[in-house]
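Q: I'm writing a short methods note and want an example of a predicted protein-small molecule complex. Could you take the sequence and the SMILES for zinc ion and return the bound structure as tokens? Please keep the output block clean; save any remarks for afterwards.
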Amino acid sequence: MSRLLIFLLCTSLFLACKFENPEERLKPQIVVTTSILADGIRNLVGDAADVVALMPAGVDPHLYKASARDLDLLLEADIVLYHGLFLEGKMTEIFEKLSLRKDLINVSENIPTELLLRSGPEAHSVDPHIWFDVKLWSMAMDHAAAELILINPTWETIISANSKSYQAQLAELDQATKLKITELSKSNQALITAHDAFAYFGKAYGIEVLGLQGLSTLSEPGLRDLTGLIKFIVQRDIKAVFAEQTISPKAIQAVVAGCESQNHQIKLAGPLYTDSLGDPEGEAGTYIGMVHTNVSVIFQSLIQ
Ligand SMILES: [Zn+2]
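A: Understood, no commentary inside the block.
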């Protein structure tokens, strides 16, 4: 082997080891919790940083527990962003411990309290599903952009430009959603899902919403809820109920069976993408695609 070849091999090995060190990365690494958040942050930073999501698509964030690999990623990240509002219910302690870091961003922390929905007075009873009101998610993304620039001022030009363009796309998405759901409202239907993820959606776009489980999938659906829900569906002649991609369809299937036992035929539609994006290559692989896909499925299933 020539001396030159040996030299090149040694140099490339040295560089390979060097770039594994967090302090010597080619690009800063941003670690986020959910796939929905990862998509938003990628839109903001573009090629300026690598964005890594702890939870892959299809994973339920309410139940997600950080693995040893996740803890390493969090500790070695240049910046960490999380959703907050107790969405990452099993990771609260980790974020409390990480809170001394100046490069930790809670994207929902600036949403005005009066715009938040809650099921009770306790702190954890706040509804975390703010991304279903596109305007609230725009506020969270705006806050994330401002915080990212504070942490790394060299990103100001790129993030400001990306943020402006993304906010325009979100405003369009909000308008398109409003139009479609307003059209649906004449059918007097309600949106019934496996868990209570759509309260912000119902409030923002004007459709009645019911969930079989509470705000978090940690709770079990009760028999009384099921009986009441079936009665409501039969009385209101509801056409469909919706499964969710991150939740077992068992409980919502029981609603369909219960309706059938009352001689009311109902479709089991969906699954809707609620707490996670779909396959990265599919139509629900981005936040904007996910909202469009959900709205289209809801509209088609309830309009007739
Ligand atoms: Zn949820």
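A: Remarks, as requested: The chain has two domains: 3-109+116-173, 181-303. Residues 181-303 form a domain with the Rossmann fold fold (CATH 3.40.50.1980).
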